[in-house]
Specification:
This protein has 483 residues and is mainly alpha-helical. It folds into 2 domains: 103 residues, no CATH class; 358 residues, no CATH class. Helix content is 61%, strand content 2%. It has a 3-stranded mixed beta sheet. Helix 7 packs across helix 16, helix 8 runs parallel beside helix 10 and helix 16 crosses helix 17. The protein is globular, with a radius of gyration of 26 Å.
Length: 483
């Protein structure tokens, strides 16, 4: 967030300099003059927006609110630091209300629909989880999709009829219901509340992260990446062929058809009546079903951000950063490498499991094709593009890349075809486009869109040893010495 404020602050002072108002001149103006200038500028922007989008006045108000939230002239106080996060949070929560009134963006077309917004939030959670492994601890993980899959299948196993089975007389073999929403009678299987399953999926996935991490985290660099890539390929294959696991006849994953349908999320009819309908009994039966999924995803992201920040600033987080900076020096200073690395793997897997379980509930099904290797690379691109180690940059990059994948490229392809008389199918070139974005960002801004302060200094100034003594030119006499 500090990087956002500094970047927009630079743009602010550049704009003032363009009209002859330097920093010193601006500070020398009386306060009411400054307020008049700022108010006049924003008023002018508001008038232009209203003129452009007058029939959708609410869109002008929203865009103006975004611009105001991102302007930083006087956000240096203690309370000012909270203005930008609160403004973004308010815009996110109210998004379903002003979306129908929003204008179309040039080239990109309409603003993202609610279905896309929910997926953006889920991928942002996964990107924050991977940021713990890659951004904090500096461990290259190419198999993160494995944790995503474990979380999704955990939700599927315990919120569906999958393990029910049918007796010869047509009755279910196994049936257990603890908080399942609107489960039909006699359907069988396990039906546990999705809110409990989110916690269970997170814990099971974290345990899987420890189990996978113990034999692999002794490796470094390319070797670690290759081994994690192997695990990332093994679990999707198990998902595809798990309908007859090891030829034992045990159906673990239902194979290519996947497991569906899953129980819908909700709070049950008792809580709905007790709260006067504030907490809906069943998300799927509500008219604003997608809005409920979106607001729940925002809540999960807030929890993920809070935990990630607390971990980063903790003793464990400082140990992760020490390992990222110099593993040998960290070990020499007493940091237990294996235990610390394993905690980073478990922490990243924890949030990947939550995201996978919630995504399974949102889709009401789990399918092996959702867990291929490209997903791991896609999430890693989000971390690199946003700025490794910076939570806000990772969220921004995750939202942008997910939007491109779900709607943006298709809209851009339509715009290109309409304006240049072509028939290009832009989504077919998605991997090349994402790769081009990463190459471009590595060349132009290797620290990412919103870099972490420490990594930015590393890339701009470098990390080098300073000599203990002044080094003089060859042949130059040093006083007090003899040749």
């Amino acid at each position: 967030m500090r990087g956002v404020r500094l970047g927009i602050g630079d743009a602010w002072w550049s704009a003032l300099g363009a009209v002859g108002l330097t920093n010193d001149r601006w500070r020398a103006l009386p306060r009411w003059h400054r307020r008049l200038l700022v108010g006049g500028m924003w008023g002018g922007i508001g008038l232009v927006l209203t003129a452009l989008f007058g029939e959708w006045a609410i869109s002008a108000v929203v865009v103006l609110a975004i611009v105001l939230a991102l302007s930083v002239p006087d956000y240096r106080g203690t309370h000012g630091k909270a203005v930008l996060p609160l403004a973004v949070f308010g815009l996110a929560v109210s998004y379903p209300f002003y979306l129908p009134h929003m204008f179309e963006m040039p080239i990109f077309g309409p603003f993202p629909i609610m279905n896309t917004m929910v997926v953006m939030a889920i991928f942002a959670m996964m990107a924050i989880g991977l940021n713990i492994v890659v951004g904090y601890a500096g461990l290259l993980d190419l198999g993160y999709v494995a944790f995503y899959a474990i979380g999704a299948y955990t939700a599927a196993w315990f919120a569906s009829p999958h393990f029910g089975g049918i007796n010869a007389d047509g009755t279910p073999k196994r049936s257990f219901n603890f908080g399942g929403i609107d489960v039909p009678a006699g359907i069988g299987g396990f039906h546990i509340s999705i809110w409990l399953l989110l916690i269970a999926a997170a814990c099971i996935t974290a345990l899987a992260g420890v189990i996978i991490g113990l034999p692999t985290l002794r490796l470094r660099g390319d070797y670690l990446a290759i081994v994690t890539l192997g695990f990332g390929e093994i679990l999707p294959q198990i998902a595809r062929n798990g309908d007859n696991l090891f030829n034992t006849g045990f159906n673990l994953t239902a194979g290519p058809p996947g497991i569906n349908p899953l129980d819908p999320p909700g709070f049950g009819h008792t809580l709905e009546r007790a709260t006067g309908g504030i907490l809906p009994a069943n998300f799927l039966t509500e008219s604003n079903s997608l809005d409920l999924y979106w607001w729940t995803a925002i809540g999960l992201i807030l929890i993920t951000i809070f935990c990630s920040i607390r971990l980063r600033d903790s003793r464990l987080g400082r140990a992760w950063i020490a390992i990222r900076e110099d593993e040998t020096a960290a070990a020499a200073m007493g940091v237990p490498l294996m235990r610390t690395k394993t905690w980073s793997y478990a922490g990243g897997a924890f949030f990947g499991g939550i995201a996978g379980a919630y995504f399974a509930s949102f889709k009401s099904g789990v399918f092996p094709d959702d867990f291929f290797f490209n997903i791991s690379v896609f999430i890693l691109c989000m971390v690199i593009l946003g700025g490794m180690g910076n939570i806000w940059g990772v969220i921004l990059a995750a939202a942008f890349l997910t939007y491109l994948d779900k709607e943006g490229l298709a809209n851009m392809g339509g715009w290109i075809n309409d304006n240049f008389d072509t028939s290009i199918d832009l989504p077919l070139y998605a991997p090349g486009i994402y790769g081009g974005i990463i190459v471009l960002i590595m060349l132009v801004r290797p620290q990412g869109l919103i870099p972490e302060a420490r990594r930015k200094l590393e890339l701009e100034q470098g990390v080098h040893d300073e000599p203990l003594y002044d080094i003089t030119a060859e042949g130059e006499h040093i006083p007090g010495t003899t040749h």
